[in-house]
Amino acid sequence: MSSLAMVLALAAVENRNLPKVTTGDRILGSSKLWLWVTCILGATFLGFQSYEFTSFVHEGLSIRTNLFGSSFFTLTGFHGAHVTAGVIWLGTLLAIDYRRGLGPADAINVDIAALYWHFVDVVWIAIFTLIYLIR
Amino acid sequence: MAHNDSAPKGGHDAHGTPTAEGGAHAAAHGAHAHPTWKQYKWVALILTVITGVEVWVYYVPSFVASKLFVPFLLIMSAVKFAIVVLFYMHLKYDARLFRALFTGPLIIAVVTIISLLFLFGHLAVRLGS
């Protein structure tokens, strides 16, 4: 879902100068809204991950417990670190958007951030299947 | 222009003709187009459905016990990966060079990982016997 919000943020930046006729246009055309949604979804993911890590440690599974613990915390921990970096990156874009507005000239910068976010997404697709589903 | 479902983005009008404003942006992007709103929505829906099916089969004991379980999940995962890369990362709409730069190393990485799996799987069998 955060990837959908990210592409909508990019589309809003690219189409900044186009007239917004309907309410739907204004919602879809709000880069601030979609950047906020992406950030919040990313932060929510990190919150759940923190809860999961804490629960596992309390249950006795840490990075030093066994091979699964090492693999699990290393893989998901590095992924979480990348999500954190992505949320910070999107936060800087939001700050720029509030300061002077993001327009078509900034689309390439937002697109690079979006590519990074989707990269983190596709890594999670693999982690989710390999770590959480396959047993 | 209203944000309708059929209008391509990335500097093209409804007929696919580059607009003046978008043309500059498209040039800055290496002259590629993006998916449409309709495609974004469908992609999100398909990804959600696939994820739902993956989680659902996880709770079907007979399917989990079958030999199809792991291949099914791996194929679903690969489909989701491809959809995100092709549409959200707009690789489908990128220049041929960018497509080659992405898929070439990806193929090498996948072949390497599969080879290592077979290698270490073989070693594990030998060490275990």
What sequence of helices (H) and strands (E) makes up the elements of chain B?
A: HHHHH
Shape of chain B: flat
Structural class of chain B: mainly alpha
Q: What coarse outline of chain A follows from CA principal-axis ratios? A: elongated
* Biggest chain contact: A-B, 39 and 36 residues
Low-confidence stretches of chain A: none
* Pattern of helices and strands of chain A: HHHHH
The largest β sheet of chain B comes out as: none
Please provide a written account of the structure.
The complex is a heterodimer of chains A (135) and B (129). The model of chain A has no long low-confidence stretch (mean pLDDT 90). The longest helix of chain A has 34 residues, at 67-100. In chain A, 81% of the residues lie in helices and 0% in strands. The radius of gyration of chain A is 18 Å and the shape is elongated. Chain A is mostly helical. Chain A has helices at 2-14, 23-28, 31-59, 67-100, 107-133. Chain B is an all-alpha fold. Chain B is built from five helices and no strands. In chain B, α2 runs antiparallel to α4. Chain B is flat. Chain B starts with 19 loop residues before the first helix and ends with a helix. Residues 1-31 of chain B have low confidence and may be disordered. The interface between A and B is large, with 39 and 36 residues.
